Amino acid sequence: MVVEGKHNLKSELEIKRERITNFILFRMTESRIVAIKDWAPIDFISFQRDQDIFPVILANCNYTYIQDESTKLEYDFENIQAVLLDRFLYGKPVIDTSMGVG
User: Fold this and answer.
1) Total domains present in the chain
2) CA distances (Å), 94 to each of 26, 40, 83, in order?
3) Which of 10, 60, 88, 95 makes the best surface tag, with the fewest CB within 10 Å?
């Protein structure tokens, strides 16, 4: 019975990973390609850790406190990854460095 539970859990994790991989591939195929000589500052990923990243992490954190016991933190890493991908990577071009600078 325990083996089946682990098998089902593994399948669910594989499904989540597959969804994230498909999300990344979909976003990449929709991206435009920019030569490195034609890049603009808006083409790069820019963020501030305290203002942009920490709120996403805190929103996906489950904090459990039990009196006279230790504190338990659990993070939803799959959702954190999906939010960060959507917020910071979607719409950014692929910068082609093979075209040269000059």
Assistant:
1) 1
2) 13, 12, 19
3) 10
